[in-house]
Amino acid sequence: MSSIRWLILVGVVVSIAILAFSILNTSLLNEKNPNNKLLLNTSENRTINPYVKEYSLPAGTWPNGILVDKNGTVWVAGSKINSLFRFDPIHEKIQSYPIEDNNSQDNKTGRSLMVWTILQDNDGLIWFSQLGTDSIWRFDPNTGKFDSVHSISAAPFQMKLDKSGNIWFTTLSGNTVGVIQKIQNSNEKYQITEFGTGNDTQPAGLFLTNNELWLTEISKQKIVKYGIMYDNGLVKNIHKILEIPTDHKISLGSPTDLFVSNETIWLTEHGTSFLTKYQINSENLTRFPTSQNAYQVTTLPFWIREANNGKGIWFNEHEGNKIAFFNTVDRTLTEYEIPSRSTDGYLVYPLNIAIDQLDSNKLWFSEWNTDKFGMVDAQIPISFEIHSDKNKIVLGNDSKQQSVVIEISKNSLAPYDNNIVFLNASSSVEPNAGLGNVDVKFFVNAVDLSKTHQVQLLLRNDSAPPGNYTLGISGSDGKVTKTVFLDLEILK
User: How confident is the model at residue 57 (pLDDT cuts 50, 70, 90)?
Assistant: First the structure.
């Protein structure tokens, strides 16, 4: 499963997009917009979403890597147009910096070198890489100049800054994790050291805490914890401490990114529709499904950005047309619909996300197959609230129905008036958040809040495999979807 999913991610999806965009004009931004004023995308949208702002880039940009720096400036890198874009969100103006180097991509070849990760170091320099190369780029915003480092096995797939200012990175195709350290009193300003993670491990996500390094390994379907070894203040080696899963009782579906807090690991399983919670001490696994996708495809949760000191988690849905925020305290999921669609009219690929360092309620994202990037503002109240009268449902093997009362209320503080809320359900029974052999029926699927505020939900076991699962109950007004979760136990 993981190999297929990753081929989709870095292979098949690229091929589809190349076909879709090969006929588009790849003219530079200044030719399309001489005043450098970035136009807010409105008229192209099927609907306007008050929670989401979108901005258009030059046709053929294929934006992926995105960063919000310490001053609130947004940086976006294209996969095909050989430029780094700088966006001022206050004045909505953009500036383009062409990347000129013998090893940079050539627009005339039609190649696509995807920039997966961008980072700002403690000196204010912008670091990024292009998948398919063996270099890391460094950009100085003060001078507008680029330079690159070529002594790595493969381009970084993700980069993180540790407390000492060292830059750690994973190489998806190189099967290594590396660290860039600033060296004082040396002819070489930076030292790069790489450590092998094993053959066919495909390290992707990384998380740093104290003197420990956590990695996700997509091919091996594992999470690995390493201890970091130092010598005279410099990283010298790493040693493996823990592998998860520890046995064959549980399996992971392409673990891609992670966040670790208080002996709890939050991770995205990119081969599924799950945001997953793993408790290290008890080895307990809880999967929270996204709402079911309108196109009946797996939503593929991707990158994680922690917010509010671990009380919230942002993540992007590769194929869900949504940006999601999970509240780890009350176990609710809020998904914001991305208004734009690709030229085929179905799926938009928000491949990368960046949290606003000045306001963690705002998350920026790139839209790889629409030549846009956007921002979600979670501080804006949604138009409704949804609650359940139960926290857990137990279904026996006797086909007996269980009922849940769903309470939906209108929020007068929302920026628009809405009375209709559509109800749906999802579960961790199936990898795509489907319900499997659990029969779920709402008394009504569309609620008119001007008439009613309660709906009964009936559940019945129709030969579903026994076990402990999670049931998601969702309400949606078409712009935002909110899901509450119930523990679901199916008896033998």
Answer: very high
- Please state, in angstroms and rounded to a whole number, the distance separating the CA atoms of residues 196 and 205: 15
| DSSP result, 205-231 | EEEEETTEEEEEETTTTEEEEEEEEEE
CATH 2.60.40.10 correct for 384-490: yes
Superfamily of chain region 55-377:
YVTN repeat-like/Quinoprotein amine dehydrogenase (2.130.10.10)
Residue 291: partners with Cβ closer than 8 Å, 6 or more residues away = 322, 333, 335, 424, 426, 433, 472, 474, 476, 481, 483
**Domain residue ranges of the chain, discontinuous segments joined by +:** 55-377, 384-490
Cis peptide before 245 (omega within 30 of 0): yes
Residue closest to 285 by CA, chosen among 300, 266, 298: 266
- Tally the C-alpha atoms within 13 A of residue 387's C-alpha that lie toward its C-beta: 7
What is the rounded distance in angstroms from the CA atom of residue 185 to the CA atom of residue 165?
Answer: 17
As given in the structure block, the two tokens for residue 50 are: 């008050």
CA dist 362 and 223 (Å) reads 29
Task: Measure the N-to-C terminal CA separation of the chain; round to a whole number of Å.
Answer: 28
Kind and range of the H or E run holding 490: strand 480-490
Q: 262: which 2 tokens? A: 């208080």
Is there a shared CATH topology between the 55-377 domain and the 384-490 domain? no
Q: What is the pLDDT, as a whole number, of residue 488?
A: 98
279: β partners = 264, 284
More reliable by pLDDT, 71 or 148? 71
Instruction: State the chain's mean pLDDT as an integer.
Output: 88
Q: What is the pTM of this model?
A: 0.89
